[in-house]
Design a protein that fits this description.
245 residues; 53% helix; mainly alpha; two-stranded antiparallel sheet; 2 domains
Length: 245
């Protein structure tokens, strides 16, 4: 993680625009380098957002060079590393709580099998059990699923590892590309091409109506950076960062 952080901050320092120091200060103080990139789709892990941003930068840089398109390095850095700044201070650990039915089933299994369970570490006890020795009601669905399988089929095995899971806590719901633009423009001035590319980096996944399709199509005609960034983002999430099935 420290190496990844150093690479990203080093790239931002190559951007010669007023406000870059303030932007990198914001990144350092925010959860950018600790946040996941999603709650379940790709890089849903600590540091996933920073890793994804660097992946997109590398892919975007490669595409620009391959097609010999005259796009400034600063734009590649800004779009690659800044397209998903909407996800800073956006996620929280914990995940969505399990349903009443799942929670009730888990508690019933625990009542039947807890006497057969080997010792559980004290840090786990404090994290997922309440003072009455029952599972916390806010236990995430993913954790409840693992615990149900363990109690049903492997209760004599050691207590299973529970993954860190996340849920969304969006305190400024501006949208996706729009919010990334807002964050960036709080610190630095963007070119029109950068604005268009970042706004539409989700491509067809961010088109809600006819006016959206019209604007997206026109943005693609105005600058190749729109297509380059949206495909780099798509390839990163669906090829480079795809987890094994």
């Amino acid at each position: 993680m420290p190496e990844l952080k150093g690479i990203i901050l080093g790239l931002w320092e190559r951007v010669n625009r007023t406000g870059i120091k303030e932007l990198t200060g914001f990144l350092d103080e925010s959860d950018f380098f600790q946040a996941p990139c999603s709650v379940k789709y790709h890089l849903a892990k600590r540091g996933g957002l920073a890793e994804h941003s660097l992946n997109v930068f590398y892919l975007l840089h490669e595409k620009v060079n391959r097609y010999k398109i005259d796009i400034p390095e600063e734009s590649i850095i800004i779009c690659g590393l800044g397209h998903d700044l909407c996800k800073t201070n956006f996620y929280q650990e914990g995940g969505e709580p399990c349903s009443e039915a799942q929670y009730g089933y888990l508690c019933n299994l625990w009542a039947q099998k807890q006497g057969l369970v080997t010792e559980i570490r004290s840090d786990i006890l404090l994290k997922i059990f309440n003072e009455d020795g029952q599972f916390q009601r806010f236990l995430p669905t993913a954790s409840a699923t693992i615990l149900i399988d363990w109690l049903k089929n492997r209760h004599r095995d050691p207590f299973p590892e529970l993954p860190v899971v996340y849920s969304v806590k969006d305190e400024l719901p501006l949208g996706h590309g729009e919010k990334s633009l807002s964050v960036l423009q709080d610190f630095i001035k963007l070119t029109d091409s950068e604005k268009l590319a970042i706004r539409w980096h989700m491509g067809a996944w961010d088109l809600s109506d006819y006016s959206g399709r019209w604007a997206f199509n026109n943005a693609n005609k105005m600058t190749p950076l729109v297509a380059l960034l949206s495909t780099a983002d798509f390839e990163a999430g669906n090829i480079l960062e795809r987890e094994g099935e």
